[in-house]
Amino acid sequence: MTKRIFLCALLIAAVVAQVAYATTEAPAVGTNAPDFTLTTNEGNQAGLKDFRGKWVVLYFYPKDFTGGCTLEAHNFQTDLAKYQAINAVILGVSVDTAESHKSFCAKEGLTFKLLSDSEGKVSDTYGSVMEYQGAKLSARNTFIINPEGKIAKVFMKVKPAGHSEEVLAALAELQKEKPVN
What we know:
Layout: H1 2-18, E1 37-40, E2 45-47, E3 55-60, H2 67-78, H3 80-85, E4 88-94, H4 98-108, E5 113-116, H5 121-125, E6 129-132, E7 135-138, E8 142-145, E9 151-155, H6 163-176
Parallel strand pairs: 3-4, 4-5
Antiparallel strand pairs: 1-2, 1-5, 3-8, 6-7, 8-9
């Protein structure tokens, strides 16, 4: 019975999360990716411009130490060598503090950067803000940014299971395309 109640509560939470809203629209494919500078889990500053020349997988997620977010992060970590082999970096963004990210990375064995968007400004710029029980969180969206700094692919309302494989497949397709002169 307790398991059934827990599963019902989890289902309700998932449905409520889907009712989330973004206050701005996500940047469109082909447009310049909005630049930003945020604090990393290591306590350093990192900006999108720091990764120019690489493919960037910029993924927004609601909260450290939660089931779906942990699953998504583990999948990216498992596939990290595949991303590195194709000149791609993973950057996770949530409204959690840099200290929370540091603890999350240590506990879960994550070696890619998590960025603290504690005011939600970058999440908002990327159309990735939602409200849950009165709190502002980052919505689960992912953006692939090409080495020139343009949005190459957008994934909205991501499902954590299998998302890393979906992103790797999209990167493979994008890297096959010939540049337009």
